[in-house]
Amino acid sequence: MNNIYKLIQKHPALSIVIGFQCFRFILLPFMGLMPQDAYYHFYGENFSWCYLDHPGMIGYLLRIFTLVFGKTVFVIKLTDFVITSLTLLSFYKLAECFLSKEKLKYAIILIASTFFISILSFNSTPDVPLLLFWTLSVLFLYRAIFEHKKASWIYAGIAMGLAFDSKYTGLLLQIGLLAFILFSKHHRKLLISPWLWISLIVSAIITFPVWFWNYQNDFASFLFKSSDRTSSISKFKISPKYFFGALGHQSLLLLPILFGTFLIFTFKYIKRFLLKFKLPSSKILFLLAFFIPTFLGFLSLTPVYWVKLNWMMPSYITGIILTSIFITRKWVRYQVIFSVVIHVLVSIQLLFYVVPIKSDDTWVGWKELASEIDTLKETFPNTFVFADDGYKTTAALNFFMEEKVYAQNVIGLKALHFDFLGDDLTILNGKNAFFIDSDKRFKNEDKKGHILNEVKPYFEKCTELEPIIITKHGKKVRKFWIYFCEKYKATP
């Protein structure tokens, strides 16, 4: 302990980083299961080379951790925390390549204090492995290009491939690499270097399973991710709500000081290029190549499309390094103070659930719902369970219950990757079922009074039971409508 105390005294920046990470780790046991945690754990339990809505890296990692340490909510959260901690370590090694010792301290404090690191540490999403492999890709590319380490081209190719196997946004790494080489007059000769192309070929080989699965399934995943979004963007309907909503989300994830600095230096470099046709030094250009396409690309869509809060996250890695070049100690101190306040408020919400969340995107109530359903099944034996809300209730109940829980494909609706499990629904013919319907707004304890029209044709009779009410700290916080449906017909 003495040695640790001396180390912290000698390196105060390290104490801040360790402080934030310890705070996050202490909160892990108090975190309930999020629907996303359950859905991506479902990925791991149903192995596939790819999945409809994402590649499978987060699912594979969750599966490995739960096989080794057991299937518990804590282990799910521990997976996210460990992978994100490795991202912080990789970021430190990357930032070390660009910054002086003083500025390096700023960089590691800035990233460790952000709210987006907390989200990645607590919540399973494809962004958790994406950010790790993105950071490693940029680090290895730096070593390959500026330190002339040929083996690093291979490592970079592997990391870029694994980033794509985490989330399709990983493709922006190859785009950033080629953009840097094209714009940097000192490095254009790399276009004829075999090492560049070897690196790109290696990355393509690593991504092969994703392409192969899509080929086998009529490119379902690629079409799913692109069709609706392309249609919405092509309408080009200006929406101030989307734009200001995106600004609000980014200000929360990065905190206002850091996000404001991002906007300032982005404007500065774009203005310099457009008005003076002047490019920055090679190293700054390298950082910008992995920042501008992702950050400015998605930001430019916000007036016409709802850009999700996590889409810009990969740009934060080099964006924070660039910020550290300009920011002063005073503003770093303000960032830390603001961050501490935000994290304390969030911890109060996590521990005491002060403000009920009127959504299924919550960590509260899933385990209790599973327990209530198990009790109901004792009264109504030989029934199956299904829900109709995309994936959330189905995935959460599958995590906590011993038996299989079905999604809305039971009633002929699209059900994300549940459609690709190869389930033979005819084995359910003639069985009774419980249909679960979440009351997201929860204003009273009344029955709903009717059932979805889509459900009726698949059963001979549906009877609404008393709703299940979930309490926390003595307060009623969630409500689920329950229906007992008799004699299922797979073909209505």
End-to-end CA span: 68 Å
Tell me about the largest β-sheet: 6 strands, mixed
Enumerate how many helices there are, as a single number: 21
What is the mean predicted local confidence, pLDDT? Answer: 93
Structural class: alpha/beta
Q: Could you list the spans in which at least 5 consecutive residues all have pLDDT below 50?
A: none
| Share of residues in helices | 55-70%
Q: What best-fitting shape do the alpha-carbon axes yield?
A: globular
Helices and strands, in order, run as HHHHHHHHHHHHHHHHHHHHEHEEEEE
Number of domains: 2
Query: Rg to the nearest angstrom?
Result: 25 Å
Subcellular location: Cell membrane
Transmembrane segments: 12-34, 46-62, 74-92, 104-122, 129-146, 152-183, 195-213, 242-265, 285-305, 311-329, 336-355
Membrane topology: Multi-pass membrane protein
Keywords: Cell membrane, Glycosyltransferase, Membrane, Transferase, Transmembrane, Transmembrane helix
Q: What features would you describe in this structure?
A:
This protein has helices spanning 2-10, 12-27, 35-45, 57-69, 73-95, 101-113, 115-122, 127-146, 150-166, 172-183, 194-206, 208-216, 220-235, 240-254, 256-276, 282-289, 292-301, 313-326, 329-352, 366-379, 392-400; strands at 383-387, 405-406, 432-438, 459-464, 468-472, 475-488. With 492 residues, it is of the alpha/beta class. The protein has 2 domains: 2-352, no CATH class; 366-488, no CATH class. Strands 1, 2, 3, 4, 5 and 6 form a 6-stranded mixed β-sheet that branches. The radius of gyration is 25 Å and the shape is globular. The termini are far apart. The mean pLDDT is 93.
